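Input/output pair, single chain:
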Amino acid sequence: MRTTGQLFRWGLTCLLLAPLSFMAAWALAAPAPFLWAALALIVLGGALNAAAIVRGVRGVRGVQSGGVQSGGGRSRGGRPPLDGMSSSSWANSQGPTTQGGWAGSAEDELPRQRILFPDDGPASPPTRPSRRRVGLSAAAALLGFIAFGAYTLAIEQPLVIAQGQLTLDEVYGLWGTASRAGFTISLTIWVLLSLAVVIGVAALALFASPLADRLLITRRMLAAACIAGSVIVVASTFPSFSMGISLPDEMPFSAGGTLGPGGYLFTLSGFGLSAAAILLTVPSWSRRPR
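Output:
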């Protein structure tokens, strides 16, 4: 059974994913599936948030009446268990109780919930070596991701614009010097900035401090790498746009700045990485202990 906080986090997750579907519909020129997905996410997110509100209101009424039903069980001494924690675990973590119930102050009657980055159990945070392995592996994968993006920009997209009627050398030969130089500069800047992002991910993985060990657990380290990948894809818009507005005009036939299969996959991966970062950080994947 999901708790109030978990329902709210899943509702928030759906609402955060909906704008990604809208942007994907615009960027990939495929509105129908992504717009329907966005609509479904909005409806589902609203329903989950409504369920969380109803559940929370019932919990508050139970507190006021002196006995709360939470997840099918009454808490110890009328005190509601912390959302996501069993009543026995909550009671053991508190101070002494009186014979009549919990010996706490009135201001502590309502439990405090952690919406983002919840501690979903007593397990200790992953060790530093685990964070390093995940971070460095993600950095290596991002290097391959950059290489794939550079291929789609410098090789695939010009051939797609040429519609198979020209070779790559012929395409670059027809391209005006000023326009080609502008694209080359923007592509070089994108590659350098992308490499800086990858270095940042590796630095986070190698950063040695107790605070980093506490905050950058494996799940968050992976989410940071996903965000980095999404940033790389978004930044590639600039060299792609530079080519799209200049190269088609140089063709001896009617052409447009469309994406090839690789470019489509590269762009779609950016939205997928953003969605993965949301799914790794916002919702709670564990069920309430019984």
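Residues 4-93 form one domain. The chain is about 70% helix and 5% strand.
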